[in-house]
Amino acid sequence: MKNREQQRANFALENVRPLQSSEGEKEFVSYAKALPAMIHQNGLGQAMAFCYSKGKANNKPPAHAYMALYQLMQSWLCRAPQPFAGQDELMTAITTCHLQQYQIAQIEAQQFLIWVKKFAVAELAHD
Questions:
Q1: Which pTM does this prediction carry?
Q2: Total domains, the chain
Q3: Segment 38-57, tens digit of pLDDT
């Protein structure tokens, strides 16, 4: 059985690798590096709302990268045994959960993003 760190690493790797040669690959690396600080400064809800809104903005590479990052976070945080397991939509989960669940999700997001950043830098094109 895998420990929590192995689960995070495995899920991040499996979901970052398919982004190779995709539209917005370089932007994804940049945004993945910046997201932990954004969560720390503004909170998980504000950071995810920002990614979601930017991802819906248009059909250009930066929007693709923001949406890919949002969807990756949604996939991780809304699966068992994560804080929002059973929820279909991350923003709904964030805006309807209890404070303790929100805080746990924010910590989990930060821990998961450590691996996302590492694999994005290692696997994807960047400047």
A1: 0.93
A2: 1
A3: 999 999 999 999 999 999 87
| Host domain of residue 103 | 4-123
Place of tokens 């949406």: 67
The CATH number for 112's domain is 1.10.520.30
**Are the C-beta atoms of 60 and 54 separated by less than 8 Å?**
no
